[in-house]
Automatic annotation (TrEMBL):
Coiled-coil regions listed: none
Pfam name, any one: DDAH_eukar
Originating organism: Nocardioides cavernae
Gene3D superfamilies documented for this protein: L-arginine/glycine Amidinotransferase, Chain A
Name of the protein in its database record: Amidinotransferase
Length: 343
C-alpha cells in the first residue's frame, strides 16, 4: 500500500443535493443551480455524477465503499473528506465542522465499516470542539503529505490553528500554515482547492500564498522528497484543478497503477506540459461533475481515502484460528511431526 495514495475510498451517494446556503458566505467557489431548475432535477444530475465517479474509480482498480444518504437535510454529505480521515497504523480522526447543518454528516455506520473491514486501533474525535467555535474540516482544511508528515493548511474559519496543532501532535505531522487569498483578497476557504500532493508530483497555486517568504518555504518543503511541482494559476484553481487526489489502483492483471482523480473541468484547464508532468507518475482519471461543483467542491472533496490495513477475510481468520488451536493442542517437533507421533 502506498503511503500517499490510498487504494480504497469512501463515497457518499446523496439522493438529495443542492448547493448549501450555510456555506456560501465564505466559499467563493460555490454557485447557484441553473435558474428554473428544480431541486429534484439538480439532485438527479448530481446522483448521476456520483455514480459516474464510483464507476470510473472501480474501473481503475480502486476499492470503493459507497454509502447511501437519503437525508434531505444534509446538502453537502457528498463531501465526506471534511468530517473523517484515516491514517496508517490504524487511527481514524473525526473533525469539527464549521456549518451547523453539516455536523450530522458524521455517520456511525461509516466508522463501523472501517472497524469491521480494516484494522482500526483508535478513533480520535475532535467534534466536541464545535460548541467552542473551533473547527478543522479534515482533509479539506488540511492537505496532508503522508510521506514527509507535513500538514499544509490555509488559515480560515474552517482551519483553527489550535486544533491544527493538536491534530499534528496526535498524528505526528508538522503543521505548515499560511494565508492564501485570491486576487480580490478573499481567503481560500479550504486548502484542498489550491493544492494536491501525490507520491511524485504536487499541484499547487503558490501564487495564492500571500507571504512571499512562506511561499518559498512551502515550495522547498514540497520539493524535498524530489517531487515535481506543477504550479497552478488562480484561473486554474477556479476550474478546480487543485482539487484532485492521487489514488492507488490495479490493472486487470493485478499490477499497481497510480491515478490522479480529478474533474473533467479541472483537466480541461491544464496546459499540455502540466498534463505531461502529472502523467510521468500517474494516469489522470477525469469525470465530469458540473452539478456537484456548484457546491464549491470537486472530486477531491468527494473522496475520503482509506489509509488503513485491510482485515483478512473472515474465512481466512477462522482457518488461521483453527490451525493455531490444533498446533496448541498438538505441539510440533523440529522435524515437523506432532509430539504425539502423528504426521
Amino acid at each position: 500500500m502506498s503511503a500517499q495514495a490510498p487504494s480504497a475510498v469512501i463515497l457518499v451517494r446523496a439522493t438529495s443535493f443542492v448547493p448549501n446556503p450555510a456555506t456560501a458566505a465564505d466559499n467563493a467557489f460555490q454557485a447557484d443551480a441553473p435558474a428554473g431548475q428544480s431541486e429534484e432535477a439538480t439532485s438527479a444530475c448530481a446522483l448521476a455524477e456520483e455514480d459516474a465517479l464510483a464507476t470510473a474509480l472501480r474501473e481503475a482498480g480502486v476499492r470503493v465503499h459507497v454509502f447511501e444518504d437519503d437525508d434531505h437535510t444534509r446538502p453537502d454529505s457528498v463531501f465526506p473528506n471534511n468530517w473523517v480521515s484515516t491514517h496508517a497504523g490504524g487511527t481514524v480522526a473525526v473533525y469539527p465542522m464549521y456549518a451547523s447543518n453539516r455536523r450530522h454528516e458524521r455517520r456511525a455506520d461509516v466508522l463501523e465499516m472501517l472497524k469491521s473491514e480494516y484494522r482500526v486501533q483508535a478513533i480520535v474525535d475532535y467534534s466536541g470542539l464545535e460548541p467552542d467555535g473551533i473547527f478543522l474540516e479534515g482533509t479539506g482544511a488540511m492537505v496532508l503529505d503522508h510521506v514527509s508528515r507535513v500538514a499544509y493548511t490555509a488559515r480560515s474559519y474552517r482551519a483553527d490553528s489550535a486544533v491544527l496543532e493538536r491534530f499534528c501532535t496526535d498524528f505526528n505531522y508538522e503543521p505548515m500554515a499560511f494565508d492564501a487569498v485570491d486576487s480580490e483578497g478573499v481567503p481560500v476557504y479550504h486548502t484542498n482547492v489550491i493544492a494536491c500532493i501525490g507520491t511524485d508530483v504536487a499541484m499547487i497555486a503558490l501564487e495564492m500564498i500571500a507571504d512571499e517568504q512562506r511561499r518559498e518555504q512551502v515550495r522547498e518543503r514540497l520539493a524535498v522528497t524530489g517531487r515535481t511541482i506543477v504550479e497552478l494559476t488562480e484561473e486554474q484553481i477556479r476550474e478546480f484543478a487543485g482539487n484532485a487526489v492521487e489514488l492507488c489502483g490495479r490493472t486487470p492483471d493485478g499490477k499497481r497503477r497510480y491515478i490522479m482523480a480529478m474533474s473533467a473541468r479541472a483537466k480541461r484547464s491544464l496546459r499540455p506540459e502540466q498534463v505531461a508532468a502529472i502523467e510521468e507518475s500517474c494516469e489522470i482519471v477525469a469525470v465530469d461533475i458540473p452539478t456537484i461543483e456548484l457546491a464549491g467542491g470537486s472530486v477531491r472533496c468527494m473522496i475520503a481515502g482509506i489509509h488503513l490495513d485491510r482485515r483478512p477475510p473472515l474465512e481466512q481468520v477462522e482457518l488461521t484460528e483453527a490451525v493455531a488451536a490444533i498446533n496448541e493442542d498438538n505441539p510440533v517437533t523440529p522435524d515437523g511431526r506432532y509430539v504425539d507421533g502423528n504426521a
